[in-house]
Amino acid sequence: GENVEQHPSTLSVQEGDSAVIKCTYSDSASNYFPWYKQELGKRPQLIIDIRSNVGEKKDQRIAVTLNKTAKHFSLHITETQPEDSAVYFCAAGPAGYQKVTFGIGTKLQVIP
Amino acid sequence: NAGVTQTPKFRVLKTGQSMTLLCAQDMNHEYMYWYRQDPGMGLRLIHYSVGEGTTAKGEVPDGYNVSRLKKQNFLLGLESAAPSQTSVYFCASRGGGVASSYNEQFFGPGTRLTVL
């Protein structure tokens, strides 16, 4: 089955700096890579996703890059703000998937 | 629309007791999932369903059973609770098909379960 590794497990950045979270996956059949954000005490929510026919996708301050050859993908957050503080999960699975596999999560702290 | 709801929000059980967690969605979604979230271990899939009347095992199915008798409901049962099942349980649902709009999983608010 799919194995998703995510790092770092914790990340602290100064407000305004950039944050990068990296994930690797094992199953070459995976071609759908979502990222979820979970604020403290809340439910996970999708913030961005990418399919393997696209190398990069942006949405305002967040972007995701994918290197299918190396089987890794990353989340980039620019100009971080205190409200970006949360746990971020990456995941991988085949498009039209029955299930995805999640990474262990990265706790991001943005220091004002 | 309420989206995905879970009942109860909190529960404390003694070892050996049984209980059922209820997940309901009003989005007419085909797929439903049960996850457990433990510190440092992310979201681990317990069981899932690809449609009414179907269920399948995920990564950590032992000690749990599920049923999907109605499309909108997905029940998670613990027959004989153990302290190792202390966790936060999340239900999620998503539409079927390969179109982009069907890929997002919508999560419920979670159930915090403590087994003493």
Key words describing this protein structure:
heterodimer, A: 112 residues, mainly beta, six-stranded mixed beta sheet, five-stranded antiparallel beta sheet, globular, B: 116 residues, seven-stranded mixed beta sheet, four-stranded antiparallel beta sheet, 50% strand
Q: What does the model show?
A:
The complex is a heterodimer of chains A (112) and B (116). Chain A is an all-beta fold. Helix content of chain A is 0%, strand content 54%. Chain A has strands at residues 4-7, 10-14, 19-25, 32-38, 45-51, 56-59, 62-67, 72-77, 86-92, 101-102, 106-111. In chain A, the strands form 2 sheets. In chain A, strands 2, 4, 5, 9, 10 and 11 form a 6-stranded mixed β-sheet that branches. Chain B has strands at residues 4-7, 10-13, 19-25, 31-38, 42-49, 56-57, 64-67, 73-78, 87-94, 106-107, 111-115. The mean pLDDT of chain B is 93. In chain B, strand 7 (64-67) and strand 8 (73-78) form a beta hairpin. Chain B has 116 residues and is mostly beta strands. In chain B, the strands form 2 sheets. In chain B, strands 2, 4, 5, 6, 9, 10 and 11 form a 7-stranded mixed β-sheet that branches. A 4-stranded antiparallel β-sheet of chain B has the order 1-3-8-7, with no helix packed on it. Helix content of chain B is 0%, strand content 50%. Chains A and B meet through strand 4, strand 5 and strand 10 of A and strand 4 and strand 5 of B.
Number of helices of chain B: 0
Order of helices and strands of chain A: EEEEEEEEEEE
Q: What is the percent of helical residues of chain A?
A: under 10%
What proportion of the residues of chain A form beta strands (DSSP E)? over 45%
Order of helices and strands of chain B: EEEEEEEEEEE
Shape of chain A: globular
- Average pLDDT metric of chain B: 93
Poorly predicted residue ranges of chain B: none
Number of helices of chain A: 0
As residue ranges, the low-confidence spans of chain A are none
